Amino acid sequence: MRTPMVAGNWKMNGTLESVNSLMRDISLGAKNYPGVDILVFPAFVHLSYVKSVISKKSDEVGLGAQNISSEPGGAFTGEVSGLMLSDLGCKYVLIGHSERRLIMGESDLDVAGKFAAAQHSGLTPILCVGETLEQRQSGEALDVIEAQLFTVIKAVGIESFNNAVVAYEPVWAIGTGETAQPDQAQEIHAALRNMVASQSAKIAEQLRLLYGGSCNASNADDLFKMSDIDGGLIGGASLKASDFISIVKAAKKLI
Ligand code: PGA
After folding, report:
1. In this structure, what DSSP letter does residue 15 have?
2. Coil, strand or helix: which one is 240?
3. How far is the CA of 83 from the centre of ligand 1 (A)?
4. pLDDT digits (tens, 9 = 90+) for 97-129
5. How far is the CA of 10 from the centre of ligand 1 (A)?
6. What is the helix (H) or strand (E) element at residue 93, kind and residue range?
7. Residue 86: which of 63, 54, 70 has the closest Cα?
8. Is the CB of 212 under 6 A from ligand 1?
9. Is the pTM above the cut of 0.85?
10. Pick from 81, 78, 115, 122: which is nearest to 96 by CA?
11. 46, 60, 97, 106: which is the annotated catalytic residue?
12. What spatial distance separates the first Cα and last Cα of the chain, rounded to whole Å?
């Protein structure tokens, strides 16, 4: 069985004060849902602080970063290496979130480099894939997702997916309030698992696939009921502890 996972991507939000109370409340709520992997992804500058709040409250919540440099270190002003992240206590890192692909111009190859860097530093990458509205409307969704996935598989090898998570995040559903219908999401998740299975059936079977894109307390139950959806990557709804914990509760039903 795949352990369900709920990951909160806090994006560029929060102050020391707000992340402190958010993390405190999430930690308290998390205690009621053992067996679900619960993760938070604060901004770089809040990682250390959030880590200290987590360790005072509980060990039930894992820490991840929203981005990583593909370089191991050196003269790369403003970048953050995998070593720095694992040194701070991060266990996970988001790779190729659509905001990085579309706003910061990260290519599929850049994303593959970051995926490799994460694993070299002992971090588990959460690889984000997903199509834009135009790509969906022109019937290219699966081709886009296949290219995003296979660029990484080609660069690092399928065995690397023994220690990775993949998140399907349709760009048209992110932050828009428009969620993919459960069967729409399931169709892509099943296709993703098949793509991985074409390289290794064993890895495909154990690989966790998260859904992201306006997933919230009221639609999580129906999404997580789908056989190939193993949890969620949550943006907006992860900034309110009670909403986030309701989503964790929906994931707990998978166990
Ligand atoms: P959203 O964001 O839940 O606010 O749509 C999801 C994400 O960007 O990971």
Report:
1. -
2. coil
3. 27
4. 999 999 999 999 999 999 999 999 999 999 999
5. 9
6. strand 92-95
7. 63
8. yes
9. yes
10. 115
11. 97
12. 8
